[in-house]
């Protein structure tokens, strides 16, 4: 702990940045990252790699392999790529992998390599081919932007509700732009592109030339651009070695930095923390990483291997063949507690707790100093907040012990924040485990919410961990355990190597009468997988006939549906099945079915008396019921006389 700040790097006088290891990567990569298309999902998401032989002069004779790994490097899926050349990979907000092909087709895969769907970006893209593509995220969902061979842009702001927009043409554009990106302004997606020294903003109706406010003169080309995680800020790398940083509208300049390197960087991403006034950009070249901001000096790191940058809400993930690291601005609470010679109340409380463990009287001196200043409540809050931003469990425990120690000397300190932080950290430490591989920070976790985290655990088929988290946090069953068990059951019915009987029994033993779980939904999934008999077995456990009958009709098990409807005693349900049977069967078979179900026959007769008299007569003839047939003719004759 004495060297705790050894990896802190100052950027100017007001901020520190630190880089620490998340995982030691044990993945067995057969190719260098530079030879692959790479896509990593935000919020500690998975990594996709596709070796790209199409960019080489001599295409490889073997087909490339699409590989998906967790953030810790554990393999999740591997499949031989049998489709066309891929231009770009990207992850949607639902952690679906979007593979943009050269012909404008987009193939969507799940986390485990299962094919989900396919859509096209339009005929124009098909004719002119795809030069480049970007996957971006908006408040409406995940979008795709395409640059075609005709140097035109097409985009869709939400791939779940595909609506293609052909962007306006850039006047005089003869070649591909030097760099471009997708922006989201006023809830609308735009394209910002650079052509030599000029910048153009494409919206739904027009192409506008724009100029960054306060840009240094002498720029003849923009080589790279990066938009921040929240789409509020933009960075531009120029051929003069200057990096301009400002708002995404280009109307306000934050700062400008001369990195004295004119070579175009491999990647440039933003590195900022929510609610922080500091703004920094991380720039990566082949073997150099630079953090620049509103300071005369930069922070530089040497890269030993090919590395890839993943922008996050509160920092940047950096992974290579051997390591996965996280670079971020040191939070204020951590800085105040741990910086050298700090006299902040949190720092004094931490020292007091350490001295108390040593049974030293200095603990009393530190504590009295905090109390005399009236800052004990602030000290406890600082320690709790700093614990949330620590990655190492030993540091979390040390800070929480200090907070607990300080609480003992406060009369009315609400325990909610302390208890909630302990719970949150236990959840975070569980999912950060190497075998789980979701390295969320506290800020990301709060932004993502517990429900989305549970969905992502379910997506990874980590059902036991998801259930343990629900039980630990005491979430309502319908939102927690029941929902996860239903997802587990839907996954179970897809295991075709297990018999229908065994699957149905296992599901019933696990679910029982768990509230909020619908056996009919699970049966519908089984039917969708082609396991009709399993679906029927599962419906036996569904207590609500109103849920059983519609699915049985859909599966063309109408006679069984009729039996279930009669057992329910719901006449409306019986009539629904009878009308379905009438349309499905020929007249003779329909009447024979009714003869085997006296209750259904009685109800249908009542229906026919009011709606279909001729059908009623045919029923009496079919049953050789001469007495009722005679009564029918007598009533009919009276009705005729009245007319």
UniProtKB/TrEMBL annotation:
Q: Which residues form the Vps16 C-terminal domain?
A: 517-639
Which residues belong to any copy of the Vps16 N-terminal domain?
Answer: 4-420
Would the keyword Coiled coil turn up in this protein's UniProt record? yes
Keyword line? Coiled coil
Q: Which Gene Ontology BP terms does the record give?
A: endosomal transport; intracellular protein transport; vacuole fusion, non-autophagic
What InterPro entries is this protein classified in?
VPS16, Vps16_C, Vps16_N
Q: Which family does it belong to?
A: Belongs to the VPS16 family.
Name this polypeptide is given: Vacuolar protein sorting-associated protein 16 homolog
